[in-house]
Amino acid sequence: MSTETELAWAAGFFDGEGYVGCSQRARDNCRSISCSITQSSYTDDVPTVLARFQRIVGIGNIYKKSTAEQYKPRYAWSVQTIHDVEVVYSLLSEYLDEVKEEQFMNAIKEYIQLGSYIELGLCKKRLHKRVEGDKQCKECTTSWQLEHNETRKLERKLAKALGI
Questions:
Q1: Which of 10, 1, 27, 32 is nearest to 96 (CA)?
Q2: CATH superfamily of 3-115
Q3: With 80 as the cut, is the pLDDT of residue 65 above it?
Q4: What is the C-alpha separation between 27 and 65, in angstroms, rounded?
Q5: Between the CA of residue 25 and those of 31, 38, 64, 68, 132, what are the distances in Å?
Q6: What is the pTM of this model?
Q7: Which residues neighbour 26 within 8 Å (Cβ) at sequence distance 6 or greater?
Q8: What are phi and psi of 76, to 5 degrees?
Q9: 46, 77 in Cβ contact below 8 A?
Q10: Integer Cα distance of 161 and 109 in angstroms
């Protein structure tokens, strides 16, 4: 099979089964980008379509996802860096449907707009300016310490009430 045919197959597979997105964790505003494909398997083996996709794009990891015992095993292929997402996009873009192409563009654009908190000169939570070399500002560190202390107090009260 030609490389063009393989790439067209991979793009069609990703169009139907793939995910690409950017997110930002609420607790620390850390940004992430990824694309992935999840598939079930009738056996405990990696689905051949995932192995084929990985072989065609030449990057990414396949791993077994945790599943309740009554369900079929699930596996996922994924990449989780901006560089790898851009590589996958560049390989498949010629064959992608408009909707999936737009999802790639939106995820990459959002990731770039969020910027690294370090590049932006902000603390890890992106709430305050930080001192050069520090990951967290004084305000966030103090806030975290207060929350942590309150949580510990509550845990001790619960343990005492339960006789632990």
A1: 10
A2: Homing endonucleases (3.10.28.10)
A3: yes
A4: 24
A5: 7, 22, 24, 26, 23
A6: 0.70
A7: none
A8: -135, 140
A9: no
A10: 51
